[in-house]
Write a structure and sequence with these properties.
mainly alpha, 3 helices
Length: 86
């Protein structure tokens, strides 16, 4: 019985630490992504098919990236906490 409880606590702690590391690495890589996307502008996309759509989507890439990192971390915590006897 105590071994089972110990395993559950250990798995929960490891899962939470993994989620925190995932979020921290994602946030640390965010400025690299936004710097790369900053090079996309209307002038560089003038001759590209659907270039204006690319420029519009480029303005939202940072938001979607950080949203994905936060939601991914929340999902990792949710799965870790709600795991039964794994």
């Amino acid at each position: 019985m105590s071994r089972s409880i110990g395993n559950m606590v250990n798995n929960t702690v490891v899962g939470i630490i993994t989620a925190v590391i995932f979020i921290l690495v994602g946030i640390a890589l965010g400025p690299t992504l936004t710097a790369a996307v900053a090079d996309i502008n209307a002038t560089s996309m003038a001759d590209v098919f659907l270039g204006d759509v690319v420029v519009t989507l480029a303005q939202f890439i940072g938001f979607f990236y950080y949203l994905g990192v936060v939601l991914g971390g929340m999902a990792m915590v949710w799965i870790t906490v709600n795991r039964r006897g794994a």
